[in-house]
Design a protein that fits this description.
This is Helicase/UvrB N-terminal domain-containing protein. It comes from marine sediment metagenome. 36% of the residues lie in helices and 4% in strands. By secondary structure, the chain is mainly alpha-helical. The chain folds into two domains: 161 residues, no CATH class; 68 residues, no CATH class. The longest helix has 27 residues.
Length: 231
């Protein structure tokens, strides 16, 4: 078995890499000039070229296994669905984003299966449910789920990271705590690195961000001191 393990090849990649890329950087005018009155010029890479770019070490190999992390973003949407009809604004954009991501991911795996071969696909996710935009009721458990160990149980058992939420917000005068959606409150005031600068001044950070960091790590310190006292 040791010999088999030493011969294993591992490829770690993001699903975005499965999207077929342009082989030539052409402007709209340049494309029209080259095409003339003929058929449309095919400038996208082929499926084989994509695989050669993403996983050259697996070309010609057998017994390929895919381990999908965050696999709730990988599924084939329900055909002829229109569950986005009732969605508006950001919800509709989010549903479309989910659909596009899932389509790229699952299509990429289907290409791998056709061109190289897949012996197993193992999905891993803390939330194995269909997302909005899938054509299925949001929150529906994937029918191929073999084990559903709830996220709360995983947190309590220490298997996954413990989520951190704001426990203090001492910026008065607002109905909604600024820490709850911190990025929306500070993103336009974040410092930008100028050409020639090697470092940024930490004191130039927005007051809300500095206060949030102090509140977060101050809570860590207090908790640590309590643990120390308890021995």
């Amino acid at each position: 078995m040791i010999g088999d393990l030493k011969s294993v090849k591992i490829v770690i990649t993001n699903y975005h890499a499965f999207k077929l890329r342009e082989r030539m950087d052409l402007s709209k005018g340049g494309r029209s000039l080259l095409q003339g009155r003929g058929e449309a010029i095919e400038t996208l890479e082929t499926e084989g070229q994509m695989l050669q770019r993403v996983m050259p070490g697996l070309m010609g190999m057998k017994n390929v296994i895919a381990l999908n992390d965050e696999a709730h973003h990988c599924y084939r949407e329900k055909p002829n669905h229109d569950d986005e009809g009732d969605l508006k604004g950001d919800e509709k954009k989010e549903a479309q984003k989910n659909t596009d991501a899932a389509r790229v991911w699952i299509t990429g795996l289907e290409i791998v299966k056709r061109k190289i071969g897949l012996s197993r696909v193992i999905d891993l996710s803390a939330t194995p449910f269909f997302l909005s935009g899938s054509g299925y009721a949001e929150g529906t458990l994937f029918p191929w789920t073999m084990s559903d160990f709830s996220l709360m149980d995983a947190i309590e058992c220490g298997i996954v990271k413990l989520p951190r939420v704001p426990v203090a917000d001492n910026i008065p005068g607002e109905e909604m705590p600024k820490f709850r959606n911190l990025w929306e409150n500070i993103r336009t005031r974040m410092p930008k690195k100028r050409r020639g600068e090697s470092t940024l001044d930490p004191l130039s950070l927005p007051t809300e961000l500095q206060t949030a960091l102090e509140a977060l790590y101050g809570h860590y310190e207090k908790t640590y001191e309590l643990w120390e006292k308890e021995g």
